[in-house]
Write a structure and sequence with these properties.
The protein is mostly helical. It has three helices and two strands; from the N terminus they run αααββ. It has helices spanning 2-57, 67-70, 72-84, and strands spanning 93-96, 101-104. Strands 1-2 form a two-stranded antiparallel ribbon. A hairpin with a 4-residue loop joins strand 1 (93-96) and strand 2. InterPro entries: DUF1138 (IPR009515). It holds the Pfam family DUF1138.
Length: 110
Amino acid sequence: MYESVHVHVVYCFEKINEWRGRVDWWMFCLNMSTKYIVSALVGSFAIAYVCDYVVSDKKIFGGTTPRTVSNKEWWEETDKKFQAWPRTGGPPVVMNPITRQNFIVKSQDS
């Protein structure tokens, strides 16, 4: 009887060590893959930034910046125009996204 218990305990310890080895291996793989994934993401963002800068700011394909973007006076006049508009609000509405119909929400008082 004691022999079978001893064999069972030894078997359990062997399995525990086997699983611990597998977990260590998976953690090693996870750490290695995390390193590669993070470096690939950082590298892709760097490449995207450089491409955006070269195409948009340096204008390698030609073109010019619109006057409305580069002219500070135009921005100031546009801002004055938007600030001068009267701010009026209608009744609150709820939109049904399926039929794309708007329904006026009645207040609880009326």
